[in-house]
Amino acid sequence: MELKFYNTLTKTKEIFKPLKGNEVRIYTCGPTVYKDATIGNMRAYIFMDTLRRVLKYNGYSLKHVMNITDVGHLVSDGDEGEDKMLKSAREEGKTPLEIAEIYTKRFLNDLEDLNINLPEIICKATDNISEMIEFVKGLVENGYAYETSTAIYFDVSKLDKYGILSGINLKEQKAGARVEVDKEKRNPYDFALWIKAPENHLMKWESPWGLCYPGWHIECSTMSRKYLGDEFDIHTGGVDHIPTHHENEIAQSKGLTGKNPARFWMHGEFLLIDGGKMSKSLGNVYLLRDIKEKGFLPLSYKLFCFSSSYRNKLNFTWEAMENANKSLIKLREAYQKHSNGKETIDEEIINNYENKFHEAINDDLNMPLAMSYVWEAAKEPRKSKQIAELLLKFDTVLGLKIDEEIKEEKVEVPEDVKELVEKRNQAKTNKNWEEADKLRVEIQEKGYNIKDTKQGVIIEKYKGEQ
Ligand code: AMP
Ligand code: ZN
């Protein structure tokens, strides 16, 4: 069956075929491990997971690389501001290495909770410094890079065309439209490949240009080339990577190898919260942990993400989460009923469901449409093991653990906790969310957790932050 993906490079949906044989080589821009990943970040990795699973469903094998950025991502995506890792280390009173370890571990835990399959290769920027130096040396030798007193810059004017992903036209850009930090830069869009470290800078390496640290963009170009070669099949990331990070990756690869490194460039859109941006000042930066604490199954967040194409913005609300949680439970119940079913269904009907599902996922990962066929099959009135098997096959793409049993733990609840739960119910009825949240914390301090479900409030033993 034809497989099509939207390619940011050509702005069209194109038929996908691997460049070499049956193996698909993919590079995904991974996290900068300086703080907890948000549910917005997680949407990006759910997209990555779905892409992997769809390729596998189509019989391809994968060589997929994801980096961990543990140095060099400055506060802005360009060359301005402090290194995010160093800023976080300073604020938390830890070393950058400790910060990287803590947040890498938490990131991987979140991926596990969301049943996200890991790329075959996960590589850290700090383990690839010598390869980066070689890359930068190559760019200097090829005449694409120059040294200033603060950095080694890439000279964008040396390329036939800079800006092929975002379609920016350098000639039309007003000179100086960008904030200039280095007057020695030849062109406003030149970007730092390799940055000279100030004296007290914590992360720096010996290089032909003295003690330096890498720019964020060179990390990805170096690691993708090291593991996947000069040209590979798919490069993924978020839409925020298009104008700077990915333009610069393409520029670097063209400067070194003369080639655009990836045939397909795929980008996931952003998750919005209550219709707007997630931000600390609005107090709406949510983590997967918050979803779990409210008693929702983490995988229901994944199901929620399937309500929209990865290419559309998606608006998160707690009400939508509640619905997704109910839906996941319903789906698992439907699977259980079918797996105990005794009826036989015409193979043609089963094949028809399978074909429609397959067509939907092959149409640029159209998950909302694919889910509508999953529900059609799940709601089949005749209860049959054939449907249960079909749902399991679909679940190789969804990764929702459809066959997981829904277990309810019975616990003895002391009177004082019951009273607090009652007070919280009252606060919720009065829409006093602040009070309700305070009471939830009090209940947790007494060792219990509450889940709001269709059947009412369920009280469980509190297992702490998981
Ligand atoms: P970072 O760790 O900041 O480099 O981001 C990791 C990934 O999360 C990148 O692919 C971003 O594009 C993506 N991302 C960041 N914020 C959001 C959001 N609100 N919705 C979806 N993806 C996001
Ligand atoms: Zn990257």
Describe the structure in your own words:
The chain is 42% helix and 16% strand. With 466 residues, it is of the alpha/beta class. It has three domains: 4-268, HUPs (Rossmann fold, 3-Layer(aba) Sandwich); 300-398, Four Helix Bundle (Hemerythrin (Met), subunit A) (Up-down Bundle), CATH 1.20.120; 415-461. Strands 5-4-3-10-11 form a five-stranded parallel β-sheet, with helices on both faces. Strands 6-7-8-9 form a four-stranded antiparallel β-sheet. It has a two-stranded antiparallel ribbon with strand order 1-2. Helix 4 (129-141) crosses helix 5 (216-228) and helix 10 packs antiparallel against helix 11. Bound molecules: adenosine monophosphate (AMP) and zinc ion. Adenosine monophosphate binds at residues 29, 31-32, 40-41, 43-44, 237-238, 240-241, 268, 270-271, 278.
